[in-house]
Amino acid sequence: MARRYWNINLEEMLEAGVHFGHGTRKWNPRMAPYISAKRKGIHITNLTRTARFLSEACDLVFDAASKGKQFLIVGTKNKAADSVARAAIGARCHYVNKKWLGGMLTNWPTTETRLHKFRDLRTEQKTGRLNRLPKRDAAMLKRQLSRLQTYLGGIKYMKGLPDIVIIVDQQEEYTALRECITLGIPTICLIDTNCDPDLADISIPANDDAIASIRLILNKLLVAICEGRSSYIRNP
User: What range does the record give for the signal peptide (predicted)?
Assistant: First the structure.
């Protein structure tokens, strides 16, 4: 896989607060190699290492996208939810941004059944069939559709297991990460100073609480995905 230049700028990362970690009392000792200093009781992430691993992640997703691979982005905490949805939609990736339903990947047949139900209900709503049902039945199905939209709306077009999963917050999305590990699905994970850097295939040390930090990291990855997809379209 040839290395490419992804315009990863240290000053840009500083402005986005990528370097701010958690308090020094809330840290994982395994993160020591990724921490450059302590400042006012907060660990400071080494942005040179962040840039290195972000560049490696961009290379990986570019290469995968250029081969037509599919991506899933997971980020369900409130601060990340909107950024995850916007970024994923812009890059035509699948996403989960509300709640990770246990077994979403490891029990894929059940998820697939739910997706079929979701698509059927959407079709019935679009054709007006739901409105022709008795009010009580229609209300029940509309509630079911709303719930499915909330939790499965970002993966409604997913036909099988993703090839790569990008995880915004390791602590918050630990169940999703474990499912990927169980299935052998490669993962890219933002890791703050309280995380375990050894769990994901590529761990990017970064502030996973600041919206600006999350957006910057996601945008770099999704630019690489879009460029890879363009390469795939040009050279099918």
Answer: none
